[in-house]
Records
---
Amino acid sequence: MSKPFALNRLPSSIREELLARRAEKPGLTIDDHFTWLTSQGHQVSRSAIYRFLAAHDAQQARPDEIEEPTDAQSIRLGCLMVAASFCAPGDQIDLIKTAEVLLSWVSE
């Protein structure tokens, strides 16, 4: 299990202000954030600030609401895509039947 962020020990108001400062002034460097945190009386390393901000960016880039397809969903979608290359455009009944045949073949 990974070590918790040093910034998580800081008050939430400081973390939120750090994120707000970064959003308002994207040109600020890690050193700028380090200087600001030090002036607020908090001692954290530059690398801890970088890791905290990078993790925040990663979380923003991939919100929790997005679900990855399961293996079964991926297989079904793949069968549907292959079936679409064999069926006449607009013939949904044939498309579904062909996809089901492919799915049964893959499942065996």
---
Amino acid sequence: MPAPHAADTIATVIPCLRYRHALKAIDWLCDAFGFQRHAVYADGDVVHHAQLSFGNGMVMVGSTDVQSDWGRQTLQPDEAGMRNTQSCCVIVRDADAHHAKAKAAGAEIVIDLADQDYGGRGYACRDIEGHLWWFGSYDPWKA
């Protein structure tokens, strides 16, 4: 049974991340993780809003700020001892190939690639500004 308030769309949950160097982060996320630019709205070095797609999934990206209502509610990982209160989980076809590409691009691997007890294979890493990501082949929709 669908959630009563869920929109009839491709993906109803879209993580949002903020970066000090958002344009550089967008390039890196595309090169290292395989995201594709869906839309990027920027003035100079300030990214007001960007949408990066990965299959049927998406993340939204923007530049950090401390002036806006939203900006005052968030911290960057380095402001919290590199701890994250949330992370993105991305389902990939081949976790080994994805791991190799991300590692070659400079992703900091924090949990090494391994078969998981619940199924699939995956790993955890940090991006260039410390955001935590999980990439794995386990698909809860097919489990």
---
Amino acid sequence: MSTPVVWPASARYEEVESSAPGGLGFVQDLLNTASLGKPRQADLLESPESARQWLDSSFAVLHRVDPGAPAAPHGLGPDGLRRVLSLRDDLRTVLSSGPADESSETVAVPSIETTAAVTLGAGGARLSPHGDAVEAVRSYVLIQLVAASYGGTLRRLKVCANPRCRGAFYDRSKNCSRVWHDVSTCGNTQNVRAYRARRKERGPASAQ
């Protein structure tokens, strides 16, 4: 039995057994740097210093699962932190949007763009991260999402449906039907809230 990969940000929300495979786990870990859960955990990207610590620890794990990953950026300043935060927020919006539905409200889904290096050799075509520091991280994240999209696994990387959680998890269920980060907490909380809302709509008659 293989040892679970422990990503530093995701582990705070007990996302060990539900970690995404390979480099996609880094994408999940980036999403889980946010202040989530109950009680709330700290935002690991709150400052350049805390972001630097997370990048070092998360990249240490990443290089064990993907030796070809780029190096962790050094000297992360305010502008670099802003770009990482923007990437995290845009990813959460995209993953939360779900498939288009005529009955749902229109949600502005951001377009995340980056560059990548394409090499063609005896082993076929290969995409590699392009750019320095933060841009290499952005490039790597987008490459992982493209690979997961073609491999059919991107749909399993989800954001919890509980608006007070929004933790990222990897759905390993057979029919890919999970919607909660943790059904015993997030799921029950939402079900109770929905039940109370229905009772309130029905009014006094519901108490009889």
---
Amino acid sequence: MKITSMSVSRRNLLFIGTAMAFGGVSSSFTQRAQALTQEHNTSTIKALVFDVIGTCTDHWGTIVHEGQIINRTKGINLDWGAIANSWHGLYPSGFAEIYNEKRPWQSLSSLRREALDNIMRGHGFSERELASINSVWQRLELWPDTLSGLNRLKQRFTLATLSNADMADMVKLAKLRHLPWDLIMTSELAHTVKPSPKVYQLAPQYLGLKPEEILMVACHKQDLNGAKAQGMRTAFISRPLESGPNGNVDAKPEPTQFDINASSFNQLADLLT
């Protein structure tokens, strides 16, 4: 299938919806013109691999929701929005040290726990409470379009994860949220983290496909660029609320950089139909 200027009116309606989701109609005609100069043949795609945290799940919203329950239970008034931002901002430094081989491989959940301990020091939380908070990554809430979009895509494609997370966390999350993965892969299998080429190379290895037959789906452009460098196709999903309503997130589509730009998994399914 080619996404070109010969697209039917239904595609135009999808584009209008995407333009509104990506920040207004004022620039939509320019974006549409850019998109129409591209011909991305997606007919050879056989499998989709997904970033999970941020792309499929709302980590900020989940941390805030569970934190508010903790506030009520303990009679405290912590700003869990600020905690969620600080927590998500701290542990990538540990990822970077592993990526640059300045630190030996270790469980990614342990890196998150290390960052959490730094943030929560002095707030009077017990070891058991901190362990429970750290396990929130196994209970992340999904974006509203995640399940419906994945179930539509599964009708035509093999679906797999390719996440910077622990295998156990992804298995528990999949069971809890009924995620329809055919295969779970994480960077733990490569003992490094994205955007290391070793992580993306897991996909063709374990799926038994050529890189160009695999579409990497993510809301993080660095992740997609890493996949693209290994010969994979790319789909950018805009998640403007990934860091909360006041977060600073790059959610703008890149028609000339990625094969597909969409505002939801359902729109991705439409574009691949």
